[in-house]
């Protein structure tokens, strides 16, 4: 048996025997070990005591009985009122059953007491399991309730590799809307790339023509000429960003999140990770730890190029930025889970294991990446000299202000992913298994292209207004996607789910905040990387005295 909990709150689960069910006579079961991913996801496997042998049919038989006193009856009534249902596994195949039901008036409550199991086998492997709940018994205090079961084995043509296919929902995930949204995003990408290349090709060509014409004027004409545009800030555009320590840590973390997303999606496309409990989470943790040098390399080299001196502090902040955010949220939600006695409460041993991964795997690998980054690409090699005195930033129209650009920058990237967000949210917060990772890969690629295009256009307008504070603006205008995703998660909670209660609500909004922030940091890093290449390119091509 795994867990029991309210149907509408997928994450609010309790041990199966936290309800006063009784246990069968068989005491032990072999071959069970718990993985890190299972421990974090609140899987609590306990043996049911049902005696089942391969290919041995069992006629309906009682396996135990419940002495129903008032306290036990109240527990069952509470469970039935809140639509509790339980999950159990036979040979790692999940099956679900409902605890009981109320009559129409809501006065009498009934418990399902008879589990009718039908197990399909192909050769010597179990390939299909069905559970039917029967035997409705009214809950009356101070009575005995007998729990019974039966097992019927039948031959099945399902191959062992395909036994999880019946749990997938192609009509939901491969719906026309899903294909249409991908097509829609693709058209947006083509439009944006066209727009960016047109703006940049035409306007930059004009700019270059204007600047080269100015080269040919004599000094007198040039002083009278109205010089304007992005060339004016060439002495300040490569000035280090404000707060370079935090900035480079964020860029490093964003590059790492992108690497993790990319690798995990590829692994999920090749391997069917949904067939094993907790395997997705275990894979993500392993890949995150293994890609730590990426974080160190990009964060450390950027910090060195910006002339930062406290590189050890930068390395620590870069290494622990994401783990601290995730663990902090998990720690807070864990208190609520412990208060509720929920199976989601993370055991102390698991916490220690995660901390050990942070200190003994992530930190040393991050150090390796930082040293490589500082030595291989830590020298500032800017195409223009940086002036000693910063140039004053002229006044500009309100819509050119960095704050406005930041708010508007996230709309298009969010527009390209929000339908996929609906499918991802539904598979996480409701009872669907997400398996269309090819879609997810396409959406990730589309998101990257849209983000880079949008930030390049924003930065071009900013530099044209002779404002050289492009580093934070390019990062934040891409990262503002996170704000729109989090706002969408509010809409999803109130209109698409029926969750209730402090535990589920705090779990939902806590982990949605973590997801949105991580997505924002990733988009920000992608936006900054693209823009940085663009800025370097345009200033390399212009002649400067």
TrEMBL record:
GO cellular component: membrane
Protein name listed in UniProt: Transmembrane 9 superfamily member
Localisation per UniProt entry: Membrane
Keywords carried by this UniProt record: Membrane, Signal, Transmembrane, Transmembrane helix
InterPro entries: EMP70 (IPR004240)
Superkingdom in the source lineage: Eukaryota
Membrane spanning stretches: 179-201, 245-270, 282-304, 316-340, 346-368, 403-425, 437-463, 475-495, 507-529
């Amino acid at each position: 048996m795994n867990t029991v909990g309210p149907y509408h709150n997928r994450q609010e689960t309790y041990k199966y025997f936290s309800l006063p069910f009784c246990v069968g006579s068989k005491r032990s079961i072999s071959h069970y070990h718990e993985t890190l991913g299972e421990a974090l996801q609140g899987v609590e496997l306990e043996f049911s005591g049902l005696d089942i042998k391969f290919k041995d049919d069992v006629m309906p038989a009682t396996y135990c009985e419940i002495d129903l006193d008032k306290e036990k009856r109240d527990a069952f009534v509470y469970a039935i009122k809140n639509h509790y249902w339980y999950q159990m596994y036979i040979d790692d195949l999940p099956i679900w059953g409902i605890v009981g039901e109320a009559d129409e008036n809501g006065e009498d409550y009934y418990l399902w007491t008879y589990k009718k199991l039908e197990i399909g086998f192909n050769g010597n492997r179990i390939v299909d399991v069905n559970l039917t709940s029967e035997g409705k018994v009214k809950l009356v205090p101070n009575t005995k309730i007998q729990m019974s079961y039966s097992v019927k084995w039948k031959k099945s043509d399902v191959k062992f590799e395909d036994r999880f296919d019946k749990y997938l929902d192609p009509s939901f995930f491969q719906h026309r809307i899903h294909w249409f949204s991908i097509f829609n995003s693709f058209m947006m990408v083509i439009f944006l790339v066209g727009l960016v290349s047109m703006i940049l090709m035409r306007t930059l060509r004009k700019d270059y023509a204007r600047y080269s014409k100015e080269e040919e004027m004599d000094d007198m004409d040039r002083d009278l000429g109205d010089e304007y545009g992005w060339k004016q800030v060439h002495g300040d555009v490569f000035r280090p960003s404000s707060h370079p320590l935090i900035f480079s840590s964020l860029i490093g973390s964003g590059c790492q999140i992108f690497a993790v997303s990319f690798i995990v999606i590829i692994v999920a496309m090749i391997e069917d990770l949904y067939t094993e409990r907790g395997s997705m989470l275990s894979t993500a943790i392993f890949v995150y730890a293994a890609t730590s040098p990426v974080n160190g390399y990009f964060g450390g080299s950027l910090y060195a190029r910006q002339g930062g001196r406290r590189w050890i502090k930068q390395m620590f902040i870069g290494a622990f930025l994401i783990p601290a955010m995730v663990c902090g949220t998990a720690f807070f939600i864990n208190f609520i889970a412990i208060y509720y006695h929920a199976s989601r409460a993370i055991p102390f041993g698991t916490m220690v294991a995660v901390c050990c991964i942070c200190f003994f795997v992530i930190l040393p690998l991050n150090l390796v990446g930082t040293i490589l980054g500082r030595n291989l690409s830590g020298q500032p090699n800017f195409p223009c000299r940086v002036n000693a005195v910063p140039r004053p930033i002229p006044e500009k129209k309100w819509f050119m202000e960095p704050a406005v650009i930041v708010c508007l920058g996230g709309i298009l990237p969010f527009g390209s992913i929000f339908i996929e967000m609906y499918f991802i949210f539904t598979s996480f917060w409701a009872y669907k298994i997400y398996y269309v990772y090819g879609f997810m890969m396409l959406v990730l690629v589309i998101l990257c292209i849209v983000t880079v295009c949008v930030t390049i256009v924003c930065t071009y307008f900013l530099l044209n207004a002779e404002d050289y504070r492009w580093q934070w603006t390019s990062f934040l205008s891409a990262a503002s996607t996170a704000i729109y995703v989090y706002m969408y998660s509010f809409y999803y909670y109130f209109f698409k789910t029926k969750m209730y209660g402090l535990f589920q609500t705090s779990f939902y909004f806590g982990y949605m905040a973590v997801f949105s922030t991580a997505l924002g940091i990733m988009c920000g890093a992608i936006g900054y990387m693209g823009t940085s290449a663009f800025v370097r390119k345009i200033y390399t091509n212009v002649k400067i005295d």
